[in-house]
Specification:
Elements (H helix, E strand, L loop, with lengths): L1 H27 L5 H13 L11 H8 L14 E6 L8 H4 E6 L5 E4 L7 H4 L2 H4 L7 H8 L10 H18 L3 H4 L7 E7 L6 H13 L6 E4 L12 E2 L32 E2 L1 H18 L5 E4 L6 H11 L6 E3 L7 H10 L4 E3 L13 H6 L5 E2 L3 H4 L2 H13 L4 E3 L5 H12 L4 E6 L11 E3 L6 E2 L2 E3 L9 E3 L1 H6 L28
Parallel strand pairs: 4-5, 4-13, 5-8, 8-9, 9-10, 10-11, 12-13
Antiparallel strand pairs: 1-2, 2-3, 4-16, 6-7, 14-17, 15-16
């Protein structure tokens, strides 16, 4: 055994010296960030240099090489002690979306309940998870998954799930992607979402800026009836929905308002004039950015499948990357009919919860090949591991996955880890490109920035999700007049006795 150690030492001694010198050089470089410098110092202390251990016995060698292992965390003894929100209440702020799960060892994890989610979907889970070991991630998910559902109803379960992954990674000292089985990529391609701009030429100019200045190689645009509302003769039957949510998204509170209607039940149609205008918009964008750049399209409005097919045929020749959410995700047969009638790829999934279950899931959509690309939103789908399971199942069926994301940097980084660990992944949405403060809501704990020229960097030298909150910046995004920050949540300490099994 000792001769084998000698052979290994001879082969690695030179390499170890070179690596040690490189570490010293980087530590002494004034431009090296403090987080990176601290990481390198710890790595140097914990390194194993066999060349310097040859005078020791085998037993002493083993003892020496394990002496620098961190004992600050004992993962098997971890217990969840609390769940709090950066800002309590449902006021729509970025702080309102972020939760923190605390443990008995001072390690905490961050989660994100997604835009438009009621905090109560997450708060009610506190009494279900306090006292559990956060490293038993899958078991915790099975405890709470029944309390999630499609759309924003999945936000609470998903936020808790990503937070316990964050804790587990920190406790074990590894990035979350490592716990998922390793990574396929070191950087994650992003697509730049772009808000609706009525003038086609101006819209094309904005998209071109995203590509040439900001470095994005995949773009998305809105394309549908909202862009046609002020054009006489572009739509049929739209005036019946004016002041009922059509002209002010999500404003209607009545059950029969526009945004409460599923797609087949508005009977809004697009005229040939309207189709020509949509085609002109796509043509202007395609001419501006060229043929190499994929362009996706979204927000067609609540129209039936016949109108979706007509739009698709009007723009098929411009080779869009996908048409997104043409009709509601649960109309599998209608999606199949749209897909069979058009050339442009079809994509949906941001409101689907889990791979399978009693309330839907991606499985039927995938099994019946109703779309060309699945589009889960991790913060609605059930969290990091469930999204990976969805992507892996779709891959077996020959379907790639793009990730929808309209959340805080916490969920954004959860998506990055999941994307890194999923082979069938295509591209991740960046919905906050026009918010200059977005990245500053958190601090990266590794050596790389969050985003570099259209790609998110996968954390390679930081545990957990690889982020900590930038408290001052996050407080600045709180609701006007808000004062509390991660206040206690005793109202969720207990829900009393509830027989919450789904069978008897």
């Amino acid at each position: 055994m000792k001769s084998i150690l000698h052979q290994i030492a001879d082969k690695t001694r030179y390499k170890e010296r070179a690596e040690a010198e490189a570490i010293r050089t980087e530590i002494s470089n004034p431009s090296t960030p403090n987080d990176r410098r601290n990481f390198l110092k710890k790595a140097a202390l914990g390194g194993i240099a066999l060349g310097g251990l040859m005078h020791l016995s085998i037993e002493d060698t083993i003892a020496q090489t394990t002496s620098k292992v961190s004992r600050s965390s004992s993962p098997s003894d971890l217990k969840i002690t609390d769940l709090r929100f950066a800002e309590k209440g449902n006021k729509g702020s970025y702080a309102n979306r972020i939760l923190r799960i605390d443990t008995n060892q001072g390690i905490y994890g961050l989660g994100d309940i997604r835009d438009g989610t009621d905090q109560r979907f997450a708060g009610m889970l506190k009494s279900k998870i306090v006292g559990l070991n956060p490293c038993n991630v899958e078991m915790i998910f099975k405890v709470i998954k029944q309390f999630g559902g499609p759309g924003r109803q999945g936000g609470g379960v998903s936020a808790v799930e990503m937070a316990v992954w964050d804790i587990c990674g920190k406790a074990l000292g590894v990035p979350v992607w490592q716990l998922l089985g390793g990574r396929y990529r070191d950087k994650v391609r992003l697509y730049a979402d772009t808000p609706e701009i009525e003038d086609p030429a101006e819209f094309a100019k904005v998209l071109k800026d995203r590509m040439e200045v900001k470095g994005y190689s995949w773009l998305k645009m809105d394309l549908g009836i909202p862009a046609l509302l002020d054009i006489p003769g572009a739509l049929v039957n739209d005036k019946a929905w004016t002041n009922r949510g059509l002209d002010n998204a999500y404003s209607g509170k009545n059950y029969t308002d526009y945004y409460n209607q599923e797609h087949p039940f508005t009977q809004i149609q697009i005229t040939e004039k309207g189709l020509e205008r949509l085609a002109q918009t796509v043509e202007a964008v395609r001419n501006a950015v060229g043929t190499e750049i994929p362009i996706s399209a979204d927000h067609f409005g609540h129209i039936d499948m016949n109108q979706a097919i007509r739009i698709a045929k009007a723009v098929d020749k411009y080779r869009l990357a996908w048409l997104e959410d043409t009709v509601a995700w649960f109309y599998t047969d209608q999606l199949k009919e749209i897909k069979a009638s058009i050339e442009t790829p079809l994509c949906t999934g941001e409101d689907i919860y889990m791979l399978s279950g009693m309330i839907g899931g991606f499985k039927k959509l995938i099994d019946e090949r109703a779309v060309d690309i699945i589009h889960p939103d991790l913060v609605s789908a059930g969290g990091i591991l469930e999204t990976k399971k969805i992507v892996d199942y779709a891959e077996e069926a020959g379907l790639p996955a793009a990730f929808h994301a309209n959340s805080t940097p916490v969920a954004f980084m959860a998506n990055v880890h999941c994307a890194a660990a999923s082979e069938g992944f295509l591209v991740l949405e960046h919905h906050n490109l026009d918010n200059p403060w977005f990245e500053g809501l958190v601090k990266m704990t590794g050596s790389q920035p969050m985003i570099t020229k259209g790609y998110a960097n996968v954390p390679l030298d930081a545990p957990g999700l690889g982020i900590e909150l930038n408290d001052e910046n996050l407080k600045a995004r709180m609701s006007k007049g808000a004062t509390g920050y991660f206040e206690p949540t005793p109202e969720w300490d207990s829900t009393g006795f509830v027989y919450d099994k789904l069978w008897i």
